[in-house]
Amino acid sequence: MSIVKKPPARRTRRSPEAAQDNILAAAQALLLEKGPQALKLTDVAARAGIAHATVLHHFGTIGEVQAALMERMIRQLVEQILAAHQGVSDAERPHTGAPVLFDAFESKGAARLAAWLELTGEARRLTMVREAVRTVLEGRKDRSAQGLAAAQDRILVSIVLAIGVGLFGRSLAELLGRPPGTARQLALDLLKGDLPPLSVPPSRRTTKR
What we know:
Strand content: under 5%
Shape: globular
Helix content: 55-70%
Distance between the termini: 74 Å
Order of helices and strands: HHHHHHHHHH
Number of strands: 0
């Protein structure tokens, strides 16, 4: 009686995009658990279940992984903000988008990663932020240079405040004996007011298309 041996199962090879997404998902999980300092090539590879050389093949350095992860998180954030803006007027957009922005920087490690990239000189490569802002502004009905500039200024301030709250809001509130969500609520209340226009030349304030 002969025993027919089954051929070994073929290992399904991921597409480059799927492989990179797997690596970035592993890096994001490490970021949430341990912070940016835990984003090391060997640890990311181990979490992704792949060889260290595979991470090097797709990204080259841990700096590339960090920058790509930030871009991935920005894309996710833009999708969430656009979903919140569906059917919302220009006047209401800041109030619906800001909480989504603060959620991202407070709970998903984005603030810590953004600060890490800035401190290590890698933030200069995050040109996707500019594209993300343009995408968010696309749905505005007011397409005048003044309207776009005012909206861009509001997004700028919102991002700065969200990063600050994400990094220091809870700890500083605790030091001052205030409830954990105090900094966030104060920042959101501040954004509800109208921001005064800045005296900046139009060439620097107009969103290029």
